[in-house]
Amino acid sequence: MALSCIVALLLCTLPPPGGVAARDVPNDAGGKIAVTWTRSPDGSVINYRVLRQAEGATEWDTIGMAGRLASRYFDEGAGNGTPYRYKVLAEADTLQGESEPSGYAKAAPQWFNTGRIPSIIGTALILVIFLYTFQQARRGAKMFIRRIAGLDAVEEALGRATEMGRPTLYVPGLSTIDDVATIASLNILGEVAKKTAKFGTPLIVPNRDPIVYTVAREVVKESYASVGRPDAFNPDSVFFLTDQQFAYAAAVDGIMLREKPATNFLIGMFWAESLILAETGAISGAVQIAGTDAVSQLPFFITACDYTLIGEELYAASAYISREPLRLGAIKGQDYNKLIILALILGGTLLALAVDIRITDIL
């Protein structure tokens, strides 16, 4: 009788999962234990039930279910410092196979994420390169930047405005101060304002954003002071128009047609109004230098303007015009870092291809 019961019990169980192990998940904030096992060889298994028991407890608690192809489960409800052990039950329709319990494991937070070491090395490398290029720039090393036609034409365009006795119009885009294109535009505005101050050319700077207006006004004022012409700064030359997109475009068009500026700078972030501004400027006969990192607006500027700064040329413009060593050093540092990133991408691609070839050869 006893033998028949044992045989019946064996026939009513599944081959259990094997090699159940538990370990703390590394590089996390704690409270997480990974449970792994070897799947049951029985093909009728539907799912696995994961059980947990704290040290000193007498009962096992079900903490989760995993699919029939799973061999890992993360216990995200573990208390830090509490030892737990785990069992895994393979389940079919009416059958179960229970594994042996794992050893005890404790969840614990880690102060340092070792998975971020490559990021730290990369950041340190970038900083070292920037410090090196800054140091080289301070020592007066020659920094080469390729010729940018639109920036070479700045002085010529401002000279033309001076000879014609007409003002220069500078539109710093329509975006806010937190836009990178706006910041780059304000840097260029500072250099343009220095030259207009030297030449004695009136400068008109209409703004759409109140904060950009405030910053632009100070930039122009400081530029005039830096070249020894604070008296030539006209506070009314930098002004706020409106924050409405097309009302602003209409107002700037009116300035172009009434004031007849000899040179228009359209530099910064632009949207649908870009062609309206550039077309009106072209009709007025002004020399136009545009620049934006808005890819969708570049075709309009390239078509309607004399020179266009494309993408990163906009960010390099202030260094290019001013030839200030620190700015040139920053540009060179960026170039070196891009070169390293490009080399890493190329090397990684070649390694990935090599691995694929080896796997293909094996297969």
UniProtKB/TrEMBL annotation:
InterPro entries: DUF6754, FN3_dom, FN3_sf, Ig-like_fold
SUPFAM superfamilies listed in its UniProt record: Fibronectin type III
Superkingdom: Bacteria
Signal peptide (from-to): 1-21
Pfam families per record: DUF6754 (PF20539)
The keyword Oxidoreductase belongs to this UniProt entry's keyword annotation: no
Segments crossing the lipid bilayer: 117-134, 339-359
Record key words, sorted: Membrane, Signal, Transmembrane, Transmembrane helix
Keyword Membrane on entry: yes
UniProt protein name: Fibronectin type III domain-containing protein
Naturally occurring in which organism (per UniProt): candidate division WOR-3 bacterium
